[in-house]
Design a protein that fits this description.
The chain is of the alpha+beta class. It is built from four helices and ten strands; from the N terminus they run H-E-E-E-E-E-H-H-E-E-E-E-E-H. The strands form two sheets. Strands 1-2-3-4-5 form a five-stranded antiparallel beta sheet. Strands 6-7-8-9-10 form a five-stranded antiparallel beta sheet. A hairpin with a 2-residue loop joins strand 3 and strand 4.
Length: 208
């Protein structure tokens, strides 16, 4: 269900969170909150299961990108930066999404955020709007949780060191990846601990 809702959520994050934020504050970095996906600088915007939070009001996410932008009083545009793989969405893209599906998506990102903070408490996890992974870079290595993509069709945790050896831990071309569903703890905190341990295993290999 969350996978079905993801393209619309991605479009909202790029066009209606990162775009207005870049226009005003010159940054594309987004963040994961307990209730949604939000900007890190002005304007304060947050996508939640009930809609787009704008200046204390909730704007329903129904219709096209342009429809929601007009209802929210936001400028219409993606961030004016070079994206290697921009989201395939435009002003006429329908971004109506199922709140339950968005809740599932948010659960992926909360796992990633919390695992990254447990792994490296002094780092700040960033949600990047181009690929929509929540990630940090530590010791020149990328760690994060990513949504389904062309390589791995489900959400996954990853360690991306750039260069890898023949250690079987490195199971994909860019490093190591484990599907989020494979972290089968009893609750959120247990799954967070398991993902953080996966990150630690990667760090041990690149620094050992």
């Amino acid at each position: 269900m969350g996978i079905d809702a993801f393209p619309a959520v991605h479009a909202v994050c790029e066009w209606l969170l990162a775009g207005p934020q870049y226009a005003r504050s010159s940054t594309i970095q987004l963040r994961v909150t307990d209730t949604g996906l939000a900007t890190t600088a002005a304007p304060e915007l947050e996508l939640t299961p009930v809609g787009l939070q704008v200046a204390g009001a909730v704007v329903p996410v129904t219709g096209t990108v342009a429809d929601v932008a007009a209802a929210a009083g936001l400028p219409l545009g993606r961030p004016d930066v070079h994206y290697r793989d921009p989201v395939p969405a435009g002003p006429d893209t329908d971004v109506t999404f199922d709140p339950v599906g968005f809740g599932e998506i948010l659960s992926w990102y909360r796992l990633g955020r919390d695992a990254l903070l447990q792994f490296q408490p002094d780092e700040t996890p960033v949600l990047w709007p181009e690929h929509m992974d929540v990630a940090i870079r530590h010791h020149e290595v990328n760690y994060g949780v990513a949504p389904p993509d062309s390589a791995i069709g489900v959400p996954y945790a990853y360690v991306g060191p750039g260069a890898i050896d023949d250690d079987p831990f490195w199971n994909v071309s860019f490093g190591a990846a484990v599907r989020v569903a494979e972290f089968t703890g009893e609750d959120h905190s247990d799954r967070v601990r398991q993902i953080a341990e996966f990150f630690r295993q990667g760090l041990a290999r690149v620094t050992g």
